[in-house]
Design brief:
81% of the residues lie in helices and 0% in strands. It has 413 residues and is mainly alpha-helical. The longest helix is centred in the C-terminal third of the chain and has 47 residues. The protein starts with a helix and ends with a helix. It comes from Arenibacter algicola.
Length: 413
Amino acid sequence: MGNKSLIKKILLGLSAVGPGLFLIGYNIGTGSVTTMAKTGAEFGMSLFWAVVLSCIFTYVLMVAYGKVTLVTGRTALFNFKQEFKWGWILSLYIILVLIIGELLALMGVMGIVADLVQEGVRLAFNGAIIQRGWIILFFVAILTFFLWFGRYKAFEKVLTVLVILMGLSFMVVFIMVRPDMMDILSGMVPSIPDTPGALGLIAAITGTTCSAAVFVMRSTVVAEKGWGINDLKKEKTDAFVSAFMMLFLSGIIMAVAAGTLHISGMKLDDTVEMISLFEPLGGKLAAFVLIIGITGAGLSTIFPIVLIAPWLLADYRGTPRNIHSKSSRVLIIGAMVFAFGTVFLEERPPALMVFSQAFQACILPAVAVPMFILINKQKLMGNNKASAKLNLGLVAVILFSLLTTWFAITEFI
């Protein structure tokens, strides 16, 4: 009875932070794994400060977006369209660039998942090789079936399982590797390595953690949860759990890569390199644990990615989010086609992922500035306007978003 009671309490606790778990599943995907692992491999823990700042600012913007949704009863893009003179242009711009960024990410995610499953099959069946295209087709078929017939609560449960599986996998590998804690703490001191690619990785860290898509989706999943103005405290707790878990998991991934790849002088141009390095450390078990963790991360990301277009359009129109409508199903199928991108592109999936995450950083100012204005509108928010502390946090987010956008433009253009 005691064990059943404990499990029931844990499940109740998880159900209270549904949107947070949904966004952890979205945010800590293969984009985060690749970006954090690549950063740890190339620069050790010296850029960990960027992860810490990104997660703090993620919390600030999640609270702001959730609060405005709870007070107004309307989702973010619909609020932008209604409250600003040229808000419809801003909303359409956000929709367009987020969908482009997510489709780029989808190609990278599926490519990495396929490479990892291919490696897992090779290890398990004495060198047997399954082509990447067939692996992607298998996952696309399963995900399409689930999305065709599934509902939001079912997605939430699946993502909860995948997030827990992913977290446990990385914790097991972290314990196996035992990275030096002093190296992790030294990464808290802000510094920018004077080497090519450092600015791009800082932008990618921001893009994958403090992601513009997360905040726009935040208002949608909060609305989907059915929370109201009386749930403000619950919304803050949920945002904190989400941001803290992002920091915890991102830090573990970076530390694992810093404690192995960085010491070995590897740069992680291919995610499979990470698996092959862990095999000598912990045998095939370590390799399989890592494959399960990163694959779980990838699949947990794909659900929200393919839902983003129908949800953003519903957000913009202010209409119910029905993923079973004809238009939603067409958009979902259209997104799934892009999953096969790496079958035809020469670019390696990790490089594509880092580029897509840095691209996301460029969108951040467009979602931070309008929210700062909205949450301070007396007519809209009444007594629930932003406090001085929240305003200070939002100003810091805006300045940080402009800096990382400049980093991304400098590095890639």
